[in-house]
Structures are given as C-alpha cells and as structure tokens.
Amino acid sequence: MKLGEIESQLQRAGMGSMTAERYSYLATAVVDVSTPAIHSAQTLIAKVGGANAPIAQGIQSTVTTTNTTTTTTTTRCTTATQCLKKQATFNF
Predict the structure, then answer these.
(1) In angstroms, rounded to a whole number, what is the distance separating the alpha carbons of residues 77 and 85?
(2) CA neighbours within 13 Å on the CB side: how many for 84?
(3) pLDDT in tens, 45-75
C-alpha cells in the first residue's frame, strides 16, 4: 500500500464509514510506508553533502512533505479510531 492510496481511502471515507480497526490499520500502514522512504531520502541527502547542498533541496522538500502528510494522516486515523471506540462504548 502506498501513502497516496491511504490518503485516497480516507478522502473517500466519511467519519464512521470505516471501523476503528480499519483506521488503526491505516495509521500503522502510514508509518510502515513512509518510514523507509524518509530514511532512504535522508541517507541520500547525507551522501550528496547534507541538506544545505543545492542538489539536496528537492529531496529535502519531498522529505518535508512526506513528514507532514504522515503526521496529518496518522493523526486523522488515530483521532477517528479514538472517536469510534468512544462511540462504541456509549452505544452499549
């Protein structure tokens, strides 16, 4: 699964249209997908002379965007999971 696919699933899904377990799975998947990519990009940045090297600017921009997307998507999934679990508690 790719980060874009996860984002698409979340955009198509309204709150409550997925189970808490699915949101939890997607939160984990976001981290699983993005962590190796970010690590590889950071390794590449180090190899080309660091974040201040002109050649690294595009890579650094992509890392920043990926970090932001990862944080936003994970937060969204975690929040939805917590809300659905609370809602399930009140429904019993």
Answers:
(1) 12
(2) 17
(3) 999 988 888 989 999 999 999 999 999 999 9
What global pTM score does this model have?
Answer: 0.81
Tokens of residue 12, six digits: 């198509």
Residue 78's alpha-carbon distances to 3, 53, 68, 71, in angstroms, are 16, 36, 15, 10
Confidence of residue 92 (pLDDT cuts 50, 70, 90): low
Going by C-alpha positions, the residue among 40, 41, 39 that lies closest to residue 61 is 41
Burial (Cβ within 10 Å: 0-12, 13-18, ≥19) of residue 11: exposed
The average pLDDT across 11-35 equals 87
Report the C-alpha gap between 37 and 49 in whole angstroms: 19
Domain coordinates in residue numbering, the chain = 3-91
